[in-house]
Amino acid sequence: MKLVVKGVSVRLGSKEVLKDVTFEVKEGELVALLGPNGSGKSTILRTIFGLLKPLKGVVMFDGKWIENMEETAKKLGYLPQDTPITNLRVMEVVLLGRTPYMKGLKKPGEDDRRIALKALRDVGMENMADRSFSELSGGERQKVMLARVFAQEPQIMLLDEPTAHLDIAAQIEIMEIIRNKVDNGMAAIVAIHDINLASSFATRILMVKDGKIVHAGKSVDVITEESIKYVFGADVSVKRYGRGVYIVPKFRRPEGTGRVHVICGGGSGINILHILREEGFAVSAGVINVLDTDWEIASELGEVVDEAPFSQISDFSHDRNLKMIEKSDVVVLSNLSVGWGNFKNLLAALHAANMGKLVVVNETPFSERNFAGREAEKIYEKILKKAVIVRNEGEMLNAIRKLLDR
Length: 406
What we know:
Blueprint: E1 2-12, E2 15-26, E3 30-34, H1 41-49, E4 56-61, E5 64-65, H2 69-75, E6 76-79, H3 90-95, H4 110-122, H5 138-151, E7 156-160, H6 168-183, E8 187-192, H7 195-201, E9 204-209, E10 212-217, H8 219-222, H9 225-232, E11 236-241, E12 244-249, E13 259-263, H10 270-278, E14 282-289, H11 293-301, E15 303-307, H12 315-326, E16 330-333, H13 343-354, E17 358-361, H14 373-386, E18 388-390, H15 393-405
Parallel strand pairs: 3-8, 3-9, 6-7, 7-8, 13-14, 13-16, 14-15, 16-17, 17-18
Antiparallel strand pairs: 1-2, 1-4, 4-5, 9-10, 11-12
Helix pairs in contact: 4-5, 5-6, 10-11, 12-13, 13-14
């Protein structure tokens, strides 16, 4: 099974809203259309479904034109962006998906009801078959509309903003339902706004701008700070984890503030990082193991030098940390616990102390958080002789400002 969209252009009134759109979709693919409002995502779906006629180009299914809407509805399941409210029962709404298989005024048969019930079961709504559609929550209504698409038994689903106006739990649940169908032999093209959600579930991303596909590929390849700036006009930081990516806002710091690097881990840097960001400083942190609490916060608020989960700091990560320290205005050593896994962070702190730009938050006696023996203790003593020592995070800000004013 293969859908081919080749050289498609669409004009609405005097405006050409799609321009030479070309891509393919095969069984087992979940393709996400990403782009701002008005970029052409919905128009692409409506054109594929046959609601709009191309000015140029073709839409073909398995190498053939789709001749009529009845044939289209058996191959393509379309979920529009807006869901009309109706007083029909849930089962009746889902049975509308069987319309292409019912000739004339024929009523749904046992097979139709069995398929509709299975579709409801697939979305976890079989116990609400007799409820009025208008009484359901937004998330429940969206599940019913998906079940209607499933009842069509299409080979490709065309879904326009299926997660719009839903809370995060409902969004994830809807995308998991869609992905499960794709994994079991279907395909889907999903117009969506949430870049992180698209990255998590889509096998391929098509980024749409001004009616053109400007980037296409796997999320790790096409979701970059540059592509998002170009397509959405937004300044973000793109973070990578394993085979995936996610985006966070890129904070702008006011003129006159500096860059502070935080050596932390195990949650010791959470308050420090938040305080620094709230004061307008650009922040970085390292070396922190991936999935550490401090890693999550540092990834959201600034740059981070990371290491694999539960791994000892490598020479490569340590060198990156030293480079981050050298380009920072001030370095903060948090009240972290030290073991052999993060021992190199002490060496990094000593490097910052030798440069005259280290602030040490010495809240708890080092003997209570030292698990690397006498060698770590000797290095910490050297650090204290050359650093600015504070007792808590409140004193830290004053010490940072003094170092910046020198």
